[in-house]
Amino acid sequence: MDSKVQTSTLPPAQPTYIFRGHTSHIHCVQIVRQNSRLLTGDADGWIVLWSLASKRPVAVWQGHDAAILGIAEWGPEKLLSHGRDNSLKVWQLRPADEKHLSNAPPADGLSTHRPQPWLLHSLAVNTLNFCGFSMCPERASSSPAQLKHVSSQEDDAKSVVSDSILVAVPATEDKQVDIFQLPSERRLYTAPRVQPIDTGMIMALKLIHHPQATNLLLLLAGYESGHTAVHLLYTLTTDTPQQAWQTIYLSQPHTQPILSLDASPSLTTYFTSSADAIIAAHRIPEIPNPQTLTNPPEVPRSATLASAPAPVQVAFKINPTKHSGQQSLRVRSDGRILATAGWDGRVRIYSTKSLKEVAVLKWHREGVYGVGFAEVRVGEGHGGVDRVDRADGTMQRLQKQRELQMQAKHWIVAGSKDGKVSMWEVY
């Protein structure tokens, strides 16, 4: 039953707005810039930045010659995009730059000139599969609660205010992951494959800092075989020629390829979805041995893993949902709910605590490929209205009030094969 809540007698939920302007499949959606903008990417390489207040495009350009695999924001002035044209790009797009870019959506045709934002970096990366990139600050916040995840599928993602970031992408060896540093564009690490299991290709990944020790890097990975693993990098000292990786968690809750994964804001749990019907929750292990923090084993960074193969463990929690093909799994910033994009055109929302389905959003008649949450903002009074400058004119105050009210709502957006993006308000 496609109602707002399965046990509710309320009529089915309806989207608040439908964004139209793309002419091909929507692969990526993300709410950015403190909930004031929506970023979308499609199968033809087009990127559109929308104003959530006006519901209109404010910047439109073709960033890639092939499908967009992932998008993310890097602070208030930069955006990242990952395309199947074997490139990962960093664009400078400050709020003041929007007026210099085209606002004509792709549906208006190719005759309109659409300049690109300033291109800061372009990395040649592997895109033989459909796995998008993941990014995190190179230096983590001192508070684990502040280590909010940033993903292209990901994710969700939230802005990272950092001078440098780490970006993970599938390596040319399809079972490995390369990790680059920006802005230097240097490849710092290569996470090796799981041994001795044949996991197949990397399908989804997430790069985070360990909540116990933020100088340690964790790579969450999902594979073609249905396995998922947590790899730990023992040192982030870039002047050391050797680095040590260890697989500290390995599980196979899925019988089909993993399509997406995301971590809770606390970074203690992560979730996976697959081409099968299972949603699984996994505990991120504690550091195996505190002594290894000061004396990590020395293993070449591109070699096999530092330890013996990790035993295959049972996932912390599993929900056999009966709905196969759920992808673009995203966890909301408050950690209470997660959402998936369904091949059947439904957006499903689950409790992160119980993994029970709590809502189904139905509007698209074709498959949904991407979902994204607005950041849950607290402590802003009535929709942030208290922040409006009383010295502004009446029209300016009303416009700012509308913008702040939009930023305070609990939005979820969904991009579909039909080229449209639906926006819903959820609890």
From TrEMBL:
<keyword id="KW-0853">WD repeat</keyword>
<comment type="function">
    <text>Component of the ASTRA complex involved in chromatin remodeling.</text>
</comment>
<protein>
    <recommendedName>
        <fullName>ASTRA-associated protein 1</fullName>
    </recommendedName>
</protein>
<dbReference type="InterPro" id="IPR001680">
    <property type="entry name" value="WD40_rpt"/>
</dbReference>
<feature type="repeat" description="WD">
    <location>
        <begin position="19"/>
        <end position="60"/>
    </location>
</feature>
<dbReference type="InterPro" id="IPR036322">
    <property type="entry name" value="WD40_repeat_dom_sf"/>
</dbReference>
<comment type="subunit">
    <text>Component of the ASTRA chromatin remodeling machinery complex.</text>
</comment>
<keyword id="KW-0677">Repeat</keyword>
<dbReference type="Pfam" id="PF00400">
    <property type="entry name" value="WD40"/>
</dbReference>
<feature type="repeat" description="WD">
    <location>
        <begin position="412"/>
        <end position="427"/>
    </location>
</feature>
<dbReference type="InterPro" id="IPR019775">
    <property type="entry name" value="WD40_repeat_CS"/>
</dbReference>
<comment type="similarity">
    <text>Belongs to the WD repeat ASA1 family.</text>
</comment>
<dbReference type="InterPro" id="IPR015943">
    <property type="entry name" value="WD40/YVTN_repeat-like_dom_sf"/>
</dbReference>
